[in-house]
Amino acid sequence: MPFVSVALPLPVRRQFDYLWPEGYAGPLGPGQRVRVPFGRQSHVGFCVGLPDAVDIDPARLKPVEDVVDPAPLVGPELLRLTRWMAEYYACSWGEALSAVLPAGVKRGAKRRRVSMARIGVPEGEVADRIAEVQEGRPEQARVLRLLAASPEAIPVADLARRAGTSTSPIQTLARRGLVTIEEVEVEDDPFAGLEARLDETEALTPDQTKALAAVHAAVLSGKYASILLWGVTGSGKTEVYIRAIAETLARGKQAIVLVPEIALTPQTVRRFRARFDRVAVLHSGLTETQRRAQWERIARREADVVIGPRSAVFAPVADLGLVVLDEEHEPSFKQNSTPRYHARDVAIMRAHHAGAVVVLGSATPSLETWANSMRGKYGLAILPRRVQRRPLPPVEVVDMAREAPVDKATPLLSHSLVMAMREALGKGEQVILFRNRRGHSTFVGCFRCHHVVRCPRCDVALTWHAIWRRAICHYCNHEVGLETFCPDCKTGRLSYLGAGTERVESVVEKLFPEARLARMDSDTMVTRGAYERVLGDFESRKIDVLVGTQMIGKGLDFPEVTVVGVLSADSVLHFPDFRSAERTFQLITQVAGRAGRGERPGRVVVQTLTPLHYAVQAAARHDFRAFVEKDLVHRKELGYPPFGRLARVVCHGPDEEAVHRAAERAAAALLQAAGGTSAQVLGPSPCPLPRLEDRFRWHVLVKAGGPSELARIVAALDLVKGASGKTQTTIDVDPLDMI
Asked: How far is CA 442 from the centre of its chain?
């Protein structure tokens, strides 16, 4: 029998050989999961090969304990893709393979079982049976009437509710043989309550026609291509996606559509379901059972179009023809745990292997994507105008350092924004207010002794949540209640400073008591279906003002929104991150794009303390090229992407000195590996947030000219990882978070 090569989901960058499982005569091949002994434990890994020979004495090998799956769960295409991911993102092949399968698939989530009831007597006897129980047991009679009128079985719980009774009368009828109850497996419908939204399909604009022709040509070629679809907000990018997908399906191929947030999925799904019959969704808002059912539908090729956030890039489509990344610039396409992949780059590599086309859509492309289009690595299609020639909304920049508050109760909103809201609401129009911080007050302090209430486990101030009367750490969830006086000096009164969405909501309620208001942030969107419910209410005009964080800042299309307010637009501008200006420009542009998408013109008010910064000024003019030209100058001077590649190595642990020593060892190994090249190794130094969840953090940055050079240098860390006890070392290739 052949040997079995296994990749384990452990931070060990090699595969391990085992003997064929004893007495096993079934199929076993690459992509199947197996249980194997490793050290003192058993682990589930992936078979990645059946070598005829091994490098060590076969007598030293242990046999595979169990074959978990009857057939491969990961096909050859995804095996090849994950092998590349392991090499590029400096993780193990097993860790990359583990990311491909949804948790419900890995854990074998079972379908929900429901008790179903149906009438248990012949049709001709039903009237007599109802008459028998009508006098003394009217609830049983109601149950029988409901069942007799239904051509299908009814869930027992629903039947009891509709009959206005408990399940006891139903069970009694079952014991008498008048009702039949059986347990059945049901597949939860992720589209329940989500109506398909059929937009009026107007004739394409000349710009859309030209962009679609470029995508069609690439799809028809049957070869790999990547195309940047750069279109201003409201220019009709989604219609181009849909028609490109239709062409792909007509050729017998399948498509994957990636969206950056779960919040975008309902609206996206509605539009795509209205145009395509076989749509599947994959995202973390589904139950494990739903995700498994959707994954299996895709694997059986019962779906042609797959929609979801970044992990949907691994959907088991058999014949990939097109991948669409909507809002390709969004940071949420980057995974923040091992493997730290970027869905855009994984999609491009997957399409390259499959001979498929990738469309990267955005009004504010990432500078890396823009540079690739300028170099000719990607194609470029441009939608410079909104559909129906609707104008982009004018943007007013308000300097809040000079802005006098309307009154003492409204320090958050400028006079211009309040007046614009009043006018819009008076006309029955809708308003969106964006503030990229949740909670009521972003910090609590004492003016007397200058004490700030901080998290004891993280180097951050606690955020005050007035609705819960608690100060909470947004990193580790530590929370405390606060008294009136300072906990440090005991005499000064605590002041609640800064503003989050909760405080914005309370101010709007006081200013506009008649307005119907809703808030969307991670504090309010905690129940299943909350996104769909609030966005549905906003779309159906049950909500006048929507206050929220970044989840409302992009991709949403509501034609009655005429006023958008961006509060504290420079909240990320001064972060110690070379992308801070880019993110500020993208944030303002994307949020501003929610206004004026219907027949009525829009208006945007941007409130900032740095009104003259080039990112703010370019966003106010809707001038992407001006921003890019300015920002690329700074990037080029410092060798940051897109003029080089970057990796961030973070050492973290409970002992600060041990973490420091580990970072120094990592830096020394990287410096040695970088010797003789133009690559730079910066650090070690404490992270901008030097302690999180009682773990100290130091980091080292590596700048290199290209991906292969960077991979070779970072590979040197395998010699030092795991040598520091409780201290851990993580490697982030192409990091988006420098904090």
From this structure: 24
pLDDT of the residue at 697: 96
Task: Report the chain (739 residues): mean pLDDT per 10 consecutive residues.
Answer: 89 91 88 93 94 86 92 94 95 94 78 83 85 84 87 87 88 91 74 57 88 94 95 90 95 93 68 89 80 89 93 95 95 93 97 96 95 95 89 90 59 88 94 91 89 91 88 88 88 88 92 93 74 83 91 76 90 87 92 83 91 94 94 92 95 94 94 91 94 95 93 82 72 92
Which pairs with CB-CB distance under 8 Å and at least 24 residues apart come from 350-354? 350/77, 350/81, 350/313, 350/320, 350/323, 351/224, 351/226, 351/320, 351/323, 352/224, 353/77, 353/80, 353/81, 354/77, 354/224, 354/320, 354/321
CA separation (Å) from 359 to 160, 240, 344, 448?
50, 10, 10, 57
Question: Residues near 426 by Cβ (< 8 Å), separated by ≥ 6?
Answer: none
- Cβ neighbors of 445 (< 8 A, separation 6 or more) are 451, 452, 453, 461, 494, 495, 497
What pTM was computed for the model?
0.85
Query: Please, what's the b/e burial string for 461-489 (b: 16 or more CB within 10 A of its CB; e: otherwise)?
Result: bbbbbeeeeebbbbebebeeebeeebeee
Q: What pLDDT was estimated at residue 524?
A: 81
Collapsing DSSP states into helix, strand and coil, what is residue 407? Answer: coil
Residues 6 or more apart whose Cβ sits within 8 Å of residue 634: 578, 581, 640
Closest CA to 420 of 621, 616, 605: 605
Q: For residue 148, what pLDDT is reported?
A: 87
Reading across the β-sheet that carries 603-608, which strands appear in turn? 395-399, 603-608, 561-566, 430-434, 545-548, 517-520
Check residue 27 and report its DSSP letter.
-
Taking the C-alpha atoms of residue 731 and residue 334, their distance in angstroms, rounded to an integer, is 14
Contact status, residue 386 vs residue 237, Cβ threshold 8 Å: no
Q: Which long-range contacts (CB under 8 A, 24 or more apart) does 196-203 make?
A: 196/270, 196/273, 196/274, 197/267, 197/270, 197/271, 197/274, 198/274, 198/275, 199/271, 199/274, 201/239, 202/387, 202/388
Longest dimension (CA), the chain: 96
CA of 250: how far to CAs of 154, 219, 243, 271, 512, in Å?
Answer: 39, 11, 11, 19, 52
Write the CB contacts of 561 (distance below 8 Å, at least 6 apart in sequence): 429, 430, 431, 432, 594, 595, 596, 597, 598, 602
Best CA proximity match to 584, nearest among 562, 566, 605: 566
Q: How far apart are CA 539 and CA 596, in angstroms?
A: 15
The CA distance from 525 to 543, in Å, is 16
The first and second tokens of residue 612, run together, are: 């003259």
418 and 625 Cβ atoms separated by less than 8 Å: no
Predicted local distance difference test score (pLDDT) of residue 286: 76
Token output for 152: 């299908």
Q: Is the dihedral of CA 206, 384, 325, 635 positive or negative?
A: positive
Residues 6+ apart with CB under 8 A from 86: 13, 92, 93, 95, 96, 339
Distance, in Å, from the CA atom of 586 to the CA atom of 619, rounded to the nearest integer, reads 8
Tell me which H or E stretch contains 698: strand 695-704
- Predicted confidence at residue 388, as pLDDT, reads 80
Burial 542-578 (b: 16+ CB within 10 A, else e): ebbbbbbbbbbbbbbbbbbbbbbbbbbbbbbbebebe
Q: Which amino acid, one-letter code, is at 557? A: D
What pLDDT does 35 receive? 95
Residue keyed to tokens 């399409």: 351
In this structure, are residues 349 and 89 in contact, taking their beta carbons and an 8 Å threshold? no
Cα 635–chain centre separation: 27
